[in-house]
UniProtKB/TrEMBL annotation:
UniProt superkingdom: Bacteria
Organism placement in taxonomy: Bacteria, Pseudomonadati, Bacteroidota, Flavobacteriia, Flavobacteriales
Name recorded for this polypeptide: Phenylacetic acid degradation protein
Organism: Croceibacter atlanticus (strain ATCC BAA-628 / JCM 21780 / CIP 108009 / IAM 15332 / KCTC 12090 / HTCC2559)
SUPFAM superfamilies: Trimeric LpxA-like enzymes (SSF51161)
PANTHER family noted in UniProt: DYNACTIN SUBUNIT P25 (PTHR13061), GAMMA CARBONIC ANHYDRASE-LIKE 1, MITOCHONDRIAL-RELATED (PTHR13061:SF29)
Gene3D superfamilies: Hexapeptide repeat proteins
Length: 204
């Protein structure tokens, strides 16, 4: 659901995917290979919202701001399910955990990770490569190379997802019983601990 507002029409690169149950309104620019999940509201009615290439904004997220503000979610920013970004800027390749809230004029540094359900107060400046948790959110340590490698690998899955959705996502009637030839899904993602163990394996 794409809406114009006061003559502003969203600009969305053709490689990106906006789910039909999401709402993108007004002065919004979405770059290449972005994924916008169902239930998202990206409201550029009071200011400009820019999603650079490879950003994902997952299910039931809200991106908005106070009047007169403009915000940028930089390339590779990863916004987990249910998060709220209100008037905040997100750095390159950062991760915003599920159901977290990032408030007005906050700045999340490049490659930082904000834990699930964290509350980042307005005007907070988070340096690059920070691991942030809690309410109110606090920096607890620096993000390691291994952690950012895991995060980047997960984000690459979301950068592939728009193409997969364009190719195969269709509205259908449900099956009424499980077919005998039901396809198996590939196990292509590793948890952080599994990822780290795999990195430490002598076979890699």
């Amino acid at each position: 659901m794409i809406y114009s507002f006061k003559n502003h029409i969203p600009v969305i690169h053709e490689s990106s995917f906006v789910h039909p149950l999401a709402a993108v309104t007004g002065n919004v620019i979405i770059g290449k290979d972005c994924y916008i999940g169902p239930g998202c509201a990206i409201r550029g009615d009071w200011g400009e919202i820019i999603l650079e290439d490879g950003v994902n904004v997952q299910e039931n997220c809200t991106v908005h701001m106070f009047p007169g503000k403009s915000i940028v979610l930089k390339a590779g920013a990863h916004v987990g399910h249910g998060a709220i970004i209100h008037g905040a800027n997100l750095g390159r390749n950062c991760l915003i955990g599920m159901n977290s809230v990032i408030m007005d004029d906050a700045e999340i540094g490049d490659e930082s990770i904000v834990g699930a359900m964290a509350f980042v107060k307005g005007e907070t400046k988070i340096p690059a490569r920070s691991l942030v948790v809690g309410n109110p959110a606090k920096i607890i340590k620096e993000v390691s190379d291994e952690m950012i490698s895991w995060k980047t690998a997960g984000t690459k899955l979301y950068q592939q997802l728009p193409a997969d959705c364009h190719e195969s996502l269709r509205e259908v009637e449900p099956l009424r019983e499980i077919p005998k030839n039901r396809p198996k899904q590939e196990d292509f993602y590793k948890t952080l601990n599994t990822f780290l163990r795999r990195q430490e394996s002598p076979d890699n």
